[in-house]
Design goal:
The protein has 19 helices and 37 strands. The protein is an alpha+beta fold. Strands 13, 14, 15, 16, 17, 18, 19, 20 and 21 form a nine-stranded antiparallel sheet that branches. Strands 23, 24, 25, 26 and 27 form a five-stranded antiparallel sheet that branches. Strands 28, 34, 35, 36 and 37 form a five-stranded antiparallel sheet that branches. Helix 6 packs across helix 7 and helix 14 crosses helix 16.
C-alpha cells in the first residue's frame, strides 16, 4: 500500500525484516507484529507524487464517479495477529472508522480471526475482507468465502474472484465483479503494471473467467437486493438485467449496506500480497466503501453518571444528571439539570489510545481527535487524571518516522511528543479561556474507555544488583505506561517484583524489551500462573481505627468492614439497595455504606457530628474504595489476588471521623486495614480456597490428528471437550445464534482443485480436511502446550485461548498445588 501510494520506493518483506510498520527488533527477528503502528498516506496519490499511471489505479467506466477517483488521506493502523497481544488490537480497534480483515487463503477463517472479528463488532466497525495468499498451493478462495458465512456470521458479498491461468494454473490476477473486467498482473512484477480486460475481450480470450464473472455479478446483485431497496429499483430500471446495473449503483448499494447499523454484508476481495496482486483494487475499496470520520456514529461520552454522544453535548442537547454527595436525601441524588450548551468552549477532544517510549524522541502519546482540532502549544486538560500539560510538539507518524504538524483535525491520528502524564485510555481536551481548569461539565468529560483484560501469567523480575533496582523500576514504569495489559506488583513477604501479562510470549517480549531496548539490568524468572483466592466463610464486622504517625498515613480515621464469599457473578444477579455506592471489578464487589446527610453535610439525627470541611461524601467513598481494592489485591492465605469476594465498608461518623485529623489518605489506610483484618477473621478456621483460570481453547487440527488431540485434552490435561466441528462447517452457525447464515445459499466460485458445480456449497471437497476442537482446560495444563501440539500434529496444529472463568480447585489437585506453593514459593 505504501509503495503504490508513493510513500516508499521499495516493497518491504516480513521474511527479510524490511517492512515499514514492523520496525521493532523483536518484530523483525520473529517475523510477527507485536505493537500496532500508525502511518498516514494519500490514495490515490497525486500525479506529482506518483510514477503510476492514474488510469491503472482507478480505471473505471465513464458513467461512474467513485470516491476513489479523488485523493483521500488514509490513516492506517497495522495491528498484531497473535492472541497474546489482544489488548494491542483492542485499543487500536477503539479508534478505527473501518477495518480490512486479512484472511489466509489456505488456512481460511482461523480461531483468532473470530475473536478479533467479535471485538470489532463491539465497536460496530464496518469491515471488508481481503483473502490473501491465493498464490500458494492449497489456496481455496471458494471455501474461505463459505467459512466467512459460517464462522463470522455474515453474508459474503464477493466483489472479486481469483483469476487462475487456464482455470487451474498459477494465480495471475483478479476478476472485478463490480466493473465487469479482468485485472491481469505481470508475472513477478511489482504490481504497478495492470492490464485490464473488458468483458467482451474476456469472452473471446478467457471464456471461463467471463462466465464466472457473470455468475458472480448476478449473485452480488441478488444478495444486495435483499438488503437494499434502492438497488431493487435500479434493477427494474435496468430491465432486470444484472449486467446493466452500473458500477456506481453497485458501489453505492454496497456502501449503504456496509454502513447500516447491524449490517451482515461483508464485501470480499482477492489477492496475493507477496506477488503484488490485488492491492490497488483493495485500496480503491477502502476509499469507496469504508466510512470517513464524519459518517461514523457519535462518539460515546460520559460525564459522571450521565452518558450520551459528544455532538449532543456540544449542541446543548445532553441532559446532565447531578451527582451531589451532600443532597438532602438519596432520592435527590442523580437528579437532572437543564441541558448545558457549551458552544465554542470545547476547542478539541481526543483520546490517547497508545503510549510509546522512543529512545530518541522520548514518550510519544498516540491520539485520535474526535472533535475540533488539537493545536500545537495548546493547553490540554486530562479529564481522567485531572491535570494539564502543553502539547509542545505534534507529529504525524509514518511508522517509526515522523513529521511535525501545526494542528491535528477531527478524524486524524497523530502523536503528542514529550507528554509527562497521559496514559492509554485518557481523554484530552483543549478549551477556550485562560482558566487553569475547564468549566463544568467539561472537566468531567470522558470518551468511552478501553477495557484492560485481567492478566493470567506472571513471572518474577530481579535486578542484577541492589544498585540497579531503582533503575529497573523506572524502566518498568515506562513499559507499563506503554502496555497497560502488563501489571507489576510487589510481594510483601519476599520483596520480589512480579510482572503479569496475557500469555507466555507477551511476558517474553516484555522482558526482552525491558533488557534490550530500555537497557534495564534485570532478569526474568520462570513464568507462573496467576491464581486467585476466595473466602471459605463470611467474617464478622471488624472495626479498625488508624492513628497514623508516619508522613504517608498522617491523620486519624476509622472504618468497619464485613467480607463474605460471593457466588460467581457470571451466574448471580447482584441487587443492591438504592442509593448505596457499589463497585464491581475482577469478580469482586465493594459496597460502601455512608449515612444520609442533611443540607449542611451532617448525618441525619446527629447534632454534634459533621464531616470536616476538607472532605465530601464522594471523596470518602473513593478513599474507602481504594483501600478495599488495595486489600483485595493480596489474599490472606497465599498472597494471590482475591476473587468472588464481597466487601461491605460502613462509615459511622461518630466513630470514624475525627474532625480535621481525618484525611483522604488516612481513610484509605483505615479501609485497607479493616478489610485485611476481616479477611483474617474469615480464614481463622481454615485457609482461603484457591481458584485457577480455566481457558476456552480452540484447537485447529487435521483429521488424522483429531483422536490424539482429543485424548490428550480430556485424559492427560483434565479438560472438557465442548464441541467438535468441521473447520468450515457448511451448516455451522456463527457464535451469535441470532445471525443464522444458510451457507448453501452463499455464492462462491469453484476452487481450482474442486470438482462439480461452482454454485454455492454443492461440492466442498477439501484438501487437508481440518477440524476444530473447542474445549475448556485449566490454564496450568496449557503452559507450553504449543510445542506439544506441534509434535502431535506434525507441525500443523494451531490453537488460541482466552480466559473463560476462574474455578475453585478441589481434591487432590488442590493438595498438590498447596504443597507446591508452600514448598517452592511461600
Amino acid at each position: 500500500m505504501l509503495y503504490y501510494s508513493g510513500h516508499t520506493r521499495r516493497i518491504g518483506d516480513v521474511d527479510e525484516g524490511s517492512t515499514v510498520t514492523d520496525f521493532l527488533p523483536a518484530e523483525r527477528a520473529r517475523g510477527i507484529t507485536i505493537q500496532s503502528a500508525a502511518i498516514t498516506f494519500e490514495w490515490p496519490p497525486s500525479l506529482a507524487g506518483s510514477s503510476s499511471n492514474p488510469k491503472d489505479l482507478v480505471g473505471k467506466f465513464p458513467d461512474t464517479q467513485p470516491l476513489s477517483q479523488c485523493s483521500h488521506t488514509i490513516n492506517l493502523i497495522d495491528t498484531p495477529g497473535h492472541a497474546d497481544f489482544t489488548f494491542e488490537v483492542r485499543r487500536s480497534l477503539r479508534i478505527l472508522d473501518g477495518a480490512v480483515c486479512i484472511l489466509d487463503g489456505v488456512a481460511g477463517v482461523e480461531a483468532q480471526t473470530e475473536q478479533v472479528w467479535a471485538q470489532a463488532a463491539e465497536w460496530n466497525i464496518p469491515r471488508i475482507v481481503y483473502i490473501n495468499k491465493l498464490d500458494r498451493d492449497g489456496a481455496a478462495f471458494g471455501r474461505t468465502v463459505r467459512e466467512i458465512g459460517s464462522r463470522l456470521g455474515g453474508w459474503p458479498a464477493v466483489c472479486q474472484i481469483p483469476w487462475f491461468e487456464g482455470g487451474k494454473g498459477r494465480f495471475t490476477g483478479v476478476g472485478d465483479v463490480i466493473n465487469l473486467e479482468g485485472l491481469l498482473y505481470e508475472n513477478d512484477g511489482d504490481g504497478k503494471e495492470i492490464r485490464r480486460y473488458r468483458l467482451s475481450r474476456l469472452d473471446e480470450e478467457h471464456p471461463e473467467l467471463a462466465q464466472e464473472l457473470r455468475r458472480a455479478r448476478a449473485a452480488l446483485v441478488e444478495l444486495l437486493s435483499e438488503h437494499d431497496d434502492e438497488l431493487v429499483e435500479a434493477f427494474f430500471e435496468a430491465e432486470e438485467d444484472h449486467l446493466n446495473i452500473t458500477p456506481a449503483q453497485l458501489l453505492d448499494s454496497l456502501r449503504r449496506c456496509l454502513l447500516a447499523p447491524g449490517s451482515t454484508i461483508i464485501p470480499v476481495f482477492a489477492g496475493a500480497s507477496f506477488r503484488n496482486i490485488g492491492v490497488q483494487p483493495l485500496l480503491d475499496a477502502v476509499t469507496n466503501l469504508l466510512p470517513s470520520p464524519v459518517e461514523r456514529p457519535d462518539p460515546d461520552i460520559s460525564i459522571g453518571s450521565t452518558s450520551g454522544g459528544l455532538s449532543q453535548l456540544i449542541h446543548g442537547e445532553l441532559v446532565i444528571r447531578r451527582d451531589d454527595g451532600n443532597a438532602a436525601n438519596s432520592k435527590k441524588k442523580g437528579q437532572a439539570t437543564a441541558p448545558v450548551a457549551i458552544g465554542n468552549t470545547l476547542q478539541g477532544c481526543a483520546l490517547a489510545f497508545k503510549v510509546v517510549h522512543d529512545p530518541r524522541k522520548g514518550v510519544l502519546v498516540y491520539i485520535r481527535v474526535y472533535s475540533g482540532s488539537i493545536d500545537r502549544n495548546a493547553l490540554l486538560y486530562n479529564t481522567t487524571l485531572q491535570n494539564s500539560e502543553r502539547a509542545t510538539t505534534l507529529l504525524r507518524m509514518y511508522a517509526d518516522q515522523s513529521v511535525p504538524v501545526q494542528a491535528l483535525q477531527a478524524g486524524e491520528i497523530g502523536v503528542i511528543a514529550g507528554s509527562k502524564y497521559a496514559r492509554t485510555g485518557d481523554t484530552l481536551i483543549s478549551y477556550s479561556g485562560n482558566r487553569p481548569t475547564p468549566p463544568e461539565p467539561l472537566n468531567k468529560l470522558q470518551l468511552r474507555p478501553i477495557k484492560v483484560p485481567p492478566p493470567v501469567f506472571f513471572a518474577a523480575l530481579e535486578p542484577n544488583s541492589l544498585r540497579e533496582e531503582k533503575d529497573m523500576h523506572e524502566k518498568l514504569a515506562l513499559l507499563l505506561r506503554e502496555d497497560p495489559s502488563l501489571q507489576v506488583s510487589q510481594d510483601e513477604d519476599t520483596g520480589q517484583t512480579l510482572i503479569s501479562g496475557m500469555g507466555e510470549l507477551h511476558l517474553e517480549i516484555a522482558a526482552d524489551r525491558l533488557v534490550n531496548e530500555l537497557k534495564a539490568k534485570a532478569r526474568m524468572g520462570k513464568i507462573a500462573i496467576g491464581y486467585r483466592e476466595t473466602l471459605p466463610e463470611a467474617s464478622t464486622s471488624i472495626t479498625r481505627v488508624l492513628e497514623g504517625d508516619r508522613a504517608a498515613t498522617k491523620g486519624k480515621a476509622g472504618c468497619t468492614a464485613l467480607v463474605e464469599p460471593l457466588p460467581d457473578v457470571g451466574d448471580a444477579t447482584l441487587t443492591e439497595p438504592e442509593g448505596v455506592f457499589s463497585y464491581e471489578q475482577d469478580g469482586n464487589l465493594v459496597i460502601i455504606e455512608t449515612p444520609t446527610l442533611d443540607e449542611k453535610g451532617r448525618p441525619l439525627g446527629a447534632d454534634d457530628v459533621a464531616l470536616p470541611p476538607n472532605l465530601t461524601v464522594p471523596e470518602i467513598q473513593t478513599a474507602y474504595l481504594n483501600g478495599a481494592l488495595a486489600a483485595l489485591s493480596r489474599g490472606p492465605s497465599y498472597s494471590y489476588p482475591m476473587r468472588n469476594t464481597k466487601v461491605t465498608l460502613t462509615l459511622r461518623p461518630e466513630q470514624h471521623i475525627f474532625g480535621s485529623e481525618t484525611t483522604y489518605s488516612s481513610l484509605t489506610a483505615a479501609a485497607r486495614l479493616a478489610t485485611i483484618a476481616a479477611f483474617k477473621d474469615a480464614t481463622k478456621n481454615g485457609p482461603s480456597t484457591l481458584m485457577e483460570p480455566v481457558m476456552n481453547v480452540d484447537i485447529s487440527v487435521d483429521e488424522a490428528s483429531l483422536g490424539n488431540v482429543i485424548q490428550d485434552i480430556s485424559s492427560s490435561r483434565g479438560g472438557q471437550i465442548i464441541s467438535l466441528g468441521d473447520h468450515g462447517d457448511e451448516h455451522g452457525m456463527s457464535a451469535d445464534s441470532s445471525k443464522r447464515i444458510d451457507v448453501s445459499k452463499i455464492y462462491a466460485p469453484k476452487d481450482p482443485f474442486e470438482s462439480g458445480s461452482s454454485r454455492s456449497g454443492e461440492s466442498h471437497h477439501r484438501v487437508n480436511f481440518e477440524r476444530t476442537v473447542k474445549a475448556r482446560v485449566p490454564l496450568k495444563e496449557m503452559v507450553g502446550y504449543l510445542k506439544h501440539l506441534r509434535s502431535m500434529t506434525g507441525g500443523r496444529g494451531t490453537f488460541v485461548m482466552s480466559v473463560d472463568r476462574f474455578e475453585k480447585i478441589t481434591g487432590q489437585r488442590e493438595k498438590a498445588l498447596v504443597q507446591e506453593l508452600r514448598g517452592g514459593f511461600v
